[in-house]
Amino acid sequence: MHYPTIEDAIGKTPLVALQRIGAASNRERGNVVLGKLEGNNPAGSVKDRPALSMIRRAEERGEVKPGDTLIEATSGNTGIALAMAAAIRGYRMVLIMPEDLSIERAQTMKAFGAELVLTPKSGGMEYARDLAENMQREGKGRVLDQFANPDNPRVHYETTGPELWEQTQGRITHFVSAMGTTGTITGVSRFLKERNAAVRIIGAQPSEGSRIPGIRKWPQEYLPRIYDPSTVDELVYVSQEDAEEMCRRLAREEGIFAGISAAGACWVAQQIAARVENATIVFVVCDRGDRYLSTGVFPA
User: Fold this and answer.
1) What is the pLDDT of residue 275?
2) Catalytic residues, which ones?
3) Annotated binding site for pyridoxal 5'-phosphate
Protein backbone atom coordinates (compact mmCIF):
# COMPACT_ATOMS: atom_id res chain seq x y z
CA MET A 1 0.00 0.00 0.00
CA HIS A 2 1.23 3.52 -0.82
CA TYR A 3 0.84 5.92 2.07
CA PRO A 4 0.93 9.67 1.42
CA THR A 5 4.01 11.64 2.49
CA ILE A 6 4.26 15.20 3.77
CA GLU A 7 4.76 16.30 0.13
CA ASP A 8 1.28 15.01 -0.67
CA ALA A 9 -0.16 17.37 1.96
CA ILE A 10 0.85 20.44 -0.06
CA GLY A 11 -2.00 22.13 -1.92
CA LYS A 12 -5.72 21.29 -2.13
CA THR A 13 -6.32 23.96 0.53
CA PRO A 14 -9.82 25.02 1.62
CA LEU A 15 -11.75 27.95 0.18
CA VAL A 16 -13.99 29.64 2.77
CA ALA A 17 -16.58 32.40 2.62
CA LEU A 18 -16.30 35.45 4.86
CA GLN A 19 -19.40 35.61 7.05
CA ARG A 20 -19.22 38.94 8.90
CA ILE A 21 -16.72 41.36 7.37
CA GLY A 22 -18.61 43.37 4.73
CA ALA A 23 -21.54 40.96 5.05
CA ALA A 24 -24.44 43.45 4.80
CA SER A 25 -23.02 45.24 1.75
CA ASN A 26 -22.12 41.98 0.02
CA ARG A 27 -25.60 40.54 0.56
CA GLU A 28 -27.14 43.71 -0.83
CA ARG A 29 -24.88 43.65 -3.89
CA GLY A 30 -25.05 39.89 -4.46
CA ASN A 31 -21.32 39.38 -3.86
CA VAL A 32 -19.44 36.61 -2.10
CA VAL A 33 -15.87 37.06 -0.80
CA LEU A 34 -13.82 33.88 -0.37
CA GLY A 35 -10.42 33.26 1.21
CA LYS A 36 -8.05 30.51 -0.01
CA LEU A 37 -6.47 29.15 3.19
CA GLU A 38 -2.87 28.61 2.11
CA GLY A 39 -1.76 28.65 5.73
CA ASN A 40 -3.11 25.09 5.84
CA ASN A 41 -0.07 23.88 3.88
CA PRO A 42 2.36 21.85 6.02
CA ALA A 43 4.98 24.61 6.39
CA GLY A 44 2.24 27.18 6.80
CA SER A 45 2.07 29.24 3.61
CA VAL A 46 1.36 29.45 -0.11
CA LYS A 47 5.15 29.22 -0.66
CA ASP A 48 5.11 25.46 0.04
CA ARG A 49 3.92 25.01 -3.54
CA PRO A 50 6.79 26.78 -5.39
CA ALA A 51 9.44 25.66 -2.88
CA LEU A 52 8.87 21.98 -3.60
CA SER A 53 8.25 22.67 -7.30
CA MET A 54 11.57 24.52 -7.75
CA ILE A 55 13.57 21.74 -6.08
CA ARG A 56 11.80 18.85 -7.83
CA ARG A 57 12.03 20.45 -11.27
CA ALA A 58 15.72 21.26 -10.73
CA GLU A 59 16.27 17.58 -9.84
CA GLU A 60 14.42 16.46 -12.97
CA ARG A 61 16.71 18.65 -15.10
CA GLY A 62 19.79 17.26 -13.32
CA GLU A 63 20.75 20.68 -11.94
CA VAL A 64 20.83 19.58 -8.29
CA LYS A 65 21.02 16.32 -6.36
CA PRO A 66 20.46 15.47 -2.69
CA GLY A 67 23.43 16.54 -0.59
CA ASP A 68 23.97 19.77 -2.58
CA THR A 69 23.77 23.22 -0.98
CA LEU A 70 20.85 25.44 -1.96
CA ILE A 71 20.88 29.22 -1.38
CA GLU A 72 17.95 31.62 -1.36
CA ALA A 73 17.29 35.24 -0.42
CA THR A 74 13.93 35.36 1.34
CA SER A 75 11.74 37.66 3.39
CA GLY A 76 10.32 34.73 5.29
CA ASN A 77 7.66 32.38 3.95
CA THR A 78 9.66 31.08 0.98
CA GLY A 79 12.57 30.46 3.33
CA ILE A 80 10.44 28.40 5.70
CA ALA A 81 8.94 26.45 2.80
CA LEU A 82 12.37 25.84 1.22
CA ALA A 83 13.78 24.78 4.59
CA MET A 84 11.00 22.18 4.85
CA ALA A 85 11.40 21.05 1.22
CA ALA A 86 15.20 20.77 1.63
CA ALA A 87 14.69 18.71 4.78
CA ILE A 88 12.29 16.38 2.94
CA ARG A 89 14.59 15.87 -0.03
CA GLY A 90 18.01 15.94 1.66
CA TYR A 91 19.67 19.30 0.89
CA ARG A 92 21.73 21.76 2.91
CA MET A 93 19.76 25.03 2.87
CA VAL A 94 21.33 28.47 3.33
CA LEU A 95 18.82 31.31 3.65
CA ILE A 96 19.71 35.00 3.40
CA MET A 97 17.31 37.46 4.97
CA PRO A 98 17.22 41.04 6.32
CA GLU A 99 17.80 41.16 10.07
CA ASP A 100 14.49 42.93 10.87
CA LEU A 101 12.18 40.03 9.97
CA SER A 102 10.09 38.38 12.67
CA ILE A 103 11.81 36.10 15.15
CA GLU A 104 9.19 33.36 14.61
CA ARG A 105 10.23 33.03 10.97
CA ALA A 106 13.93 32.73 11.79
CA GLN A 107 13.25 30.15 14.51
CA THR A 108 11.05 28.09 12.19
CA MET A 109 13.68 28.03 9.44
CA LYS A 110 16.29 26.85 11.94
CA ALA A 111 13.91 24.17 13.23
CA PHE A 112 13.86 22.66 9.72
CA GLY A 113 17.67 22.63 9.74
CA ALA A 114 18.38 25.67 7.57
CA GLU A 115 21.37 27.95 8.09
CA LEU A 116 20.63 31.68 8.26
CA VAL A 117 22.70 34.59 6.97
CA LEU A 118 21.29 37.90 8.22
CA THR A 119 21.85 41.07 6.19
CA PRO A 120 21.53 44.74 7.24
CA LYS A 121 18.00 46.05 7.58
CA SER A 122 19.01 49.13 5.56
CA GLY A 123 19.82 46.99 2.50
CA GLY A 124 16.39 45.33 2.40
CA MET A 125 15.66 42.35 0.17
CA GLU A 126 17.67 43.91 -2.66
CA TYR A 127 20.92 43.49 -0.68
CA ALA A 128 19.95 39.92 0.30
CA ARG A 129 19.29 39.02 -3.35
CA ASP A 130 22.65 40.45 -4.43
CA LEU A 131 24.48 38.51 -1.70
CA ALA A 132 22.81 35.24 -2.77
CA GLU A 133 24.01 35.77 -6.36
CA ASN A 134 27.54 36.54 -5.12
CA MET A 135 27.62 33.35 -3.05
CA GLN A 136 26.57 31.33 -6.09
CA ARG A 137 29.31 32.93 -8.19
CA GLU A 138 31.80 31.94 -5.49
CA GLY A 139 30.68 28.31 -5.78
CA LYS A 140 29.04 28.14 -2.36
CA GLY A 141 25.80 26.60 -3.65
CA ARG A 142 22.95 26.96 -6.13
CA VAL A 143 20.42 29.79 -6.00
CA LEU A 144 16.91 28.60 -6.89
CA ASP A 145 15.86 32.27 -7.34
CA GLN A 146 12.14 32.44 -6.67
CA PHE A 147 12.11 35.86 -8.41
CA ALA A 148 13.25 34.54 -11.81
CA ASN A 149 12.45 30.83 -11.67
CA PRO A 150 9.55 29.87 -14.00
CA ASP A 151 8.86 26.84 -11.77
CA ASN A 152 7.41 29.34 -9.27
CA PRO A 153 4.42 30.60 -11.33
CA ARG A 154 4.22 27.24 -13.12
CA VAL A 155 3.10 25.41 -9.98
CA HIS A 156 0.32 27.97 -9.42
CA TYR A 157 -0.79 27.49 -13.03
CA GLU A 158 -0.82 23.73 -12.46
CA THR A 159 -2.38 23.60 -8.97
CA THR A 160 -3.67 26.81 -7.36
CA GLY A 161 -5.54 28.09 -10.43
CA PRO A 162 -7.28 24.77 -11.17
CA GLU A 163 -8.25 24.39 -7.50
CA LEU A 164 -9.90 27.82 -7.50
CA TRP A 165 -11.76 27.10 -10.72
CA GLU A 166 -13.04 23.80 -9.36
CA GLN A 167 -13.87 25.13 -5.89
CA THR A 168 -15.96 28.00 -7.31
CA GLN A 169 -17.39 25.78 -10.06
CA GLY A 170 -16.07 28.30 -12.57
CA ARG A 171 -17.94 31.19 -10.94
CA ILE A 172 -14.86 33.17 -9.89
CA THR A 173 -15.02 36.72 -11.28
CA HIS A 174 -12.17 38.44 -9.37
CA PHE A 175 -8.88 37.12 -7.99
CA VAL A 176 -6.93 39.20 -5.47
CA SER A 177 -3.38 38.42 -4.40
CA ALA A 178 -0.65 40.21 -2.49
CA MET A 179 2.37 40.75 -4.74
CA GLY A 180 5.83 39.76 -3.51
CA THR A 181 7.70 37.50 -5.88
CA THR A 182 4.53 37.69 -8.06
CA GLY A 183 4.58 33.91 -8.65
CA THR A 184 1.07 33.33 -7.27
CA ILE A 185 -0.68 36.10 -9.18
CA THR A 186 1.16 35.37 -12.45
CA GLY A 187 0.50 31.62 -12.48
CA VAL A 188 -3.10 31.79 -11.26
CA SER A 189 -3.92 34.58 -13.73
CA ARG A 190 -2.64 32.57 -16.69
CA PHE A 191 -4.82 29.61 -15.77
CA LEU A 192 -7.99 31.57 -14.96
CA LYS A 193 -7.82 33.76 -18.05
CA GLU A 194 -7.47 30.66 -20.24
CA ARG A 195 -10.75 29.46 -18.76
CA ASN A 196 -12.50 32.83 -18.76
CA ALA A 197 -10.82 35.94 -20.16
CA ALA A 198 -13.29 38.14 -18.27
CA VAL A 199 -11.90 37.17 -14.82
CA ARG A 200 -10.33 40.26 -13.25
CA ILE A 201 -6.91 39.88 -11.63
CA ILE A 202 -6.08 42.42 -8.91
CA GLY A 203 -2.70 42.84 -7.23
CA ALA A 204 -2.37 44.22 -3.70
CA GLN A 205 0.59 46.59 -3.38
CA PRO A 206 1.81 48.60 -0.36
CA SER A 207 1.04 52.30 -0.33
CA GLU A 208 3.93 54.78 -0.13
CA GLY A 209 5.85 54.40 3.13
CA SER A 210 4.09 51.19 4.21
CA ARG A 211 6.09 48.13 5.27
CA ILE A 212 3.90 45.05 4.94
CA PRO A 213 5.75 41.70 5.20
CA GLY A 214 5.20 39.71 2.01
CA ILE A 215 4.02 42.61 -0.18
CA ARG A 216 6.58 44.57 -2.15
CA LYS A 217 6.73 47.34 -4.69
CA TRP A 218 10.08 46.57 -6.33
CA PRO A 219 12.46 49.13 -7.85
CA GLN A 220 12.50 48.59 -11.62
CA GLU A 221 15.96 46.95 -11.62
CA TYR A 222 14.80 44.37 -9.02
CA LEU A 223 11.38 43.64 -10.52
CA PRO A 224 10.96 39.84 -10.49
CA ARG A 225 11.74 38.42 -13.92
CA ILE A 226 8.80 36.01 -13.62
CA TYR A 227 6.39 38.96 -13.45
CA ASP A 228 4.29 39.55 -16.53
CA PRO A 229 2.36 42.85 -16.19
CA SER A 230 -0.14 41.70 -18.82
CA THR A 231 -1.46 39.08 -16.36
CA VAL A 232 -2.60 41.74 -13.83
CA ASP A 233 -5.59 43.94 -14.65
CA GLU A 234 -5.36 46.34 -11.73
CA LEU A 235 -3.13 47.32 -8.82
CA VAL A 236 -4.74 48.50 -5.58
CA TYR A 237 -2.61 50.12 -2.89
CA VAL A 238 -3.13 49.22 0.75
CA SER A 239 -1.64 51.01 3.75
CA GLN A 240 0.16 49.24 6.57
CA GLU A 241 -2.46 50.59 8.98
CA ASP A 242 -5.38 49.17 6.97
CA ALA A 243 -3.64 45.80 6.50
CA GLU A 244 -2.87 45.47 10.21
CA GLU A 245 -6.40 46.45 11.24
CA MET A 246 -7.85 43.89 8.78
CA CYS A 247 -5.46 41.31 10.24
CA ARG A 248 -7.00 41.81 13.68
CA ARG A 249 -10.54 41.85 12.26
CA LEU A 250 -10.06 38.57 10.38
CA ALA A 251 -9.07 36.87 13.62
CA ARG A 252 -11.74 38.49 15.81
CA GLU A 253 -14.68 38.51 13.40
CA GLU A 254 -14.04 35.54 11.10
CA GLY A 255 -11.82 33.22 13.16
CA ILE A 256 -9.22 33.39 10.37
CA PHE A 257 -5.77 33.79 11.93
CA ALA A 258 -3.87 35.24 8.99
CA GLY A 259 -0.73 37.20 8.27
CA ILE A 260 -0.51 40.89 7.39
CA SER A 261 -0.11 40.48 3.62
CA ALA A 262 -3.12 38.13 3.55
CA ALA A 263 -5.08 40.79 5.40
CA GLY A 264 -3.90 43.38 2.87
CA ALA A 265 -5.33 41.21 0.10
CA CYS A 266 -8.58 40.89 2.08
CA TRP A 267 -8.78 44.68 2.44
CA VAL A 268 -8.35 45.03 -1.33
CA ALA A 269 -11.03 42.36 -1.91
CA GLN A 270 -13.42 44.44 0.21
CA GLN A 271 -12.66 47.56 -1.87
CA ILE A 272 -13.47 45.59 -5.02
CA ALA A 273 -16.67 44.19 -3.48
CA ALA A 274 -17.88 47.72 -2.69
CA ARG A 275 -17.98 48.67 -6.38
CA VAL A 276 -19.20 45.50 -8.15
CA GLU A 277 -22.31 43.34 -8.08
CA ASN A 278 -23.04 39.61 -8.34
CA ALA A 279 -19.32 38.85 -8.08
CA THR A 280 -17.37 35.90 -6.69
CA ILE A 281 -14.19 37.44 -5.28
CA VAL A 282 -11.33 35.25 -4.10
CA PHE A 283 -8.31 36.47 -2.13
CA VAL A 284 -5.28 34.46 -1.06
CA VAL A 285 -4.82 33.93 2.68
CA CYS A 286 -1.14 33.34 2.06
CA ASP A 287 -0.04 32.39 5.58
CA ARG A 288 -0.97 32.19 9.27
CA GLY A 289 -0.96 34.85 11.95
CA ASP A 290 1.32 32.99 14.36
CA ARG A 291 4.30 34.18 12.22
CA TYR A 292 3.57 37.75 13.30
CA LEU A 293 2.97 37.53 17.05
CA SER A 294 6.27 39.26 17.86
CA THR A 295 5.54 42.17 15.51
CA GLY A 296 2.91 43.64 17.84
CA VAL A 297 0.14 43.55 15.24
CA PHE A 298 -2.04 41.49 17.57
CA PRO A 299 -2.92 42.82 21.06
CA ALA A 300 -0.77 41.29 23.79
Assistant:
1) 97
2) 47, 261
3) 77, 180-184, 261
